[in-house]
Structures are given as structure tokens and as C-alpha cells.
Specification:
The chain has helices spanning 2-17, 19-26, 32-53, 61-88, 91-97, 101-113, 119-136, 148-171, 177-202, 210-237, 240-246, 249-261, 268-285. It is mainly α. Helix 3 runs antiparallel to helix 9 (177-202) and helix 11 runs antiparallel to helix 13 (268-285). The chain is globular and about 50 Å long.
Length: 303
């Protein structure tokens, strides 16, 4: 189960590795909250079909409401802030600022879940952070004052994503990963839909061509439905501190895909960063899992 959790987290981070370039292109046509809403509807539809085929939701009313609240944080606030920040800032800034998410995941795991801040986990987190900085090169980021609100939105996205990730772990103690994923998607809609309607009233969207359609489908079905399910599965099986380190696979995969598809050159920083991130994952992965709390004892299927 530990290997499954690690594989799921790495797969989710890898999928997100190619997301920022797609998001940046689509956001030139579709406003942020319209795109968030499209992603959530597509993700909820895909996961909802599977949940329905397995007999529907089985949690109590309180568990369902709790998971919906998790979605407000993760998909109403964090995803919205991420898209706003990406639109108002730059792709390089988005890649850089969102690397703070693992630190917040680790912090919230210690504060809210009472996970032990083991030295191996801290060392692994520091190694992976240095590796990410080597890969994305902070010198490519812009601190122009005109990008301030975009950068602040990206920082807010990092904080709320860290909180969301820990809250998913709490919700997964009683509900399956599929149920948590579906309810979280639905929980984001009460915030994203009104904001999308305001955007629609503000002005028309850009021309929708085949590329935009495929981009939205990728963001909704792959980056949302599949990747979020895998991320939630990883959080259900592993300590939040270890999952935080898995997140760092994202920039490595993103840079590798840029080299493969866009023929961008990989400098020595990429290889140094890849080694540091891999080493950080190995160090963090050696830490023993925290003992489960009473709510987890005797718990059955997780999704």
C-alpha cells in the first residue's frame, strides 16, 4: 500500500507537470473561473459515473458535508487562485511560487494531523526544494510590480492547496478516495459557478477552436479527474510529509516534456535538480509512517 501511495502521488505530480503551459494558452481564451468550472464539471462527471456504478455515495450526512467543505478550499479557492495568478503573472512565476505548496502540506500535517516532524522528512523536503530551484531557475521569474497581484494569488493557491491536501487525508478516513474526489469537485462549484457567471457578464470569451476544446478536455479529465484521484489516493495512504515531497516531481516532468515536445534545451541545472529531488524522495521515503489515529483503526477500503 505504501508503494501504491508513492506511485499514485508521483503519477499525479507528473500529470500536473505539463499543465501550466496548457493552462496559460487556454486562459488567453477562457477566463479563470469559467475554466475552473469546466474542469470541475468534467471531473465530477467522470468520477460520478464510477461512483454511481459502484452503488453511489455511502457516507453519512456529516461526512459528505465535510468532504464538500474540503472541495471549497481545494477547488473553489486554491484552483481559482492558481488560475487567476497564472493569468495575471507568468508561467515561470507560477511554477516557482507553487513550489511552496509542499512546505505548507508538511506544516499543516504537523499542526493539524499531529504527524511527527522527523529529521529524514525535513532533510528530504529541503533537498527536493533545492532541486526544484535548480530545475526552474528562480532567475527566470519576474518581480515586476505589475505582477504583484498575480504573485499574491499564486501564493494564496499554495497555502490553500497545502490545507486542502491535509483535509483530504482527514476525509479519507471515513470515505473512499472516489467519494472524496467526487464530493470535493462538487464542493468547489458553489464558488466557481457564480464567479464564472460574473466573468461571462463582463465580456465575451475568445474564439473556441479544436485546440482549445482538447485543452479543456485534458485539464478536466486528465489533470482534474485522474490526477486529483491519484493525489487523493496518495494522501489516503501516506503521511502528508512524504506526499509533500512527491509533489516536487511536477517541475522535473514539466521541464522534461518541454524538452521532448518543444525541443527546449535542458541545462545542467535540470540534471542537478533531478538528482536532488530523487535523493530527497528516497530520504523522505525511509521515514516510518506515523501511527494511525483511532479513526483509522479497522478502516476498510480506501477507494
Amino acid at each position: 500500500m505504501r508503494a501504491l501511495g508513492i506511485a499514485s502521488g508521483l503519477a499525479a505530480a507528473s500529470i500536473w507537470g505539463g499543465m501550466y503551459v496548457v493552462s496559460k494558452v487556454i486562459l488567453d481564451v477562457i477566463p479563470p473561473f469559467m475554466l475552473v468550472t469546466a474542469r470541475l464539471v468534467l471531473g465530477a462527471g467522470a468520477i460520478g459515473l464510477i461512483v454511481a456504478a459502484r452503488g453511489g455515495l455511502k457516507g453519512s450526512r456529516g461526512q459528505i458535508l465535510g468532504a464538500l467543505g474540503v472541495g471549497v478550499v481545494g477547488y473553489g479557492l486554491s484552483l481559482g487562485l492558481q488560475f487567476i495568478g497564472t493569468r495575471l503573472s507568468t508561467a515561470a512565476n507560477a511554477s516557482l511560487v507553487t513550489t511552496a505548496s509542499p512546505a505548507f502540506i508538511f506544516l499543516f500535517g504537523v499542526v493539524l494531523l499531529r504527524e511527527r516532524a522527523r529529521m529524514s522528512g525535513l532533510i528530504g523536503l529541503v533537498m527536493a526544494t533545492l532541486g526544484v530551484l535548480a530545475v526552474i531557475d528562480p532567475r527566470s521569474a519576474s518581480l515586476d510590480r505589475g505582477l504583484l497581484w498575480g504573485n499574491l494569488a499564486l501564493l494564496g493557491a499554495s497555502v490553500t492547496w497545502g490545507l486542502y491536501s491535509v483535509l483530504v487525508k482527514v476525509a479519507s478516513r471515513k470515505l473512499t478516495t472516489l467519494e472524496v474526489s467526487l464530493l470535493a469537485f462538487l464542493g468547489g462549484l458553489p464558488l466557481s459557478v457564480p464567479a464564472a457567471l460574473l466573468e461571462a457578464r463582463a465580456g465575451p470569451i475568445g474564439p473556441i477552436d479544436t485546440g482549445v476544446v482538447f485543452g479543456v478536455l485534458y485539464l478536466g479529465l486528465v489533470s482534474t479527474a485522474l490526477a486529483m484521484f491519484l493525489w487523493n489516493k496518495s494522501l489516503a495512504l501516506l503521511d502528508a510529509g512524504l506526499v509533500a515531497v512527491l509533489f516536487f516531481a511536477q517541475p522535473v516532468v514539466g521541464a522534461a516534456l518541454a524538452a521532448l515536445i518543444l525541443h527546449e534545451t535542458l541545462g545542467p541545472g535540470f540534471w542537478v535538480g533531478a538528482v536532488l529531488i530523487g535523493g530527497g524522495l528516497l530520504v523522505a521515503g525511509r521515514a516510518p509512517r506515523s501511527q494511525p489515529g483511532p479513526a483509522e483503526w479497522g478502516r476498510g477500503e480506501v477507494g
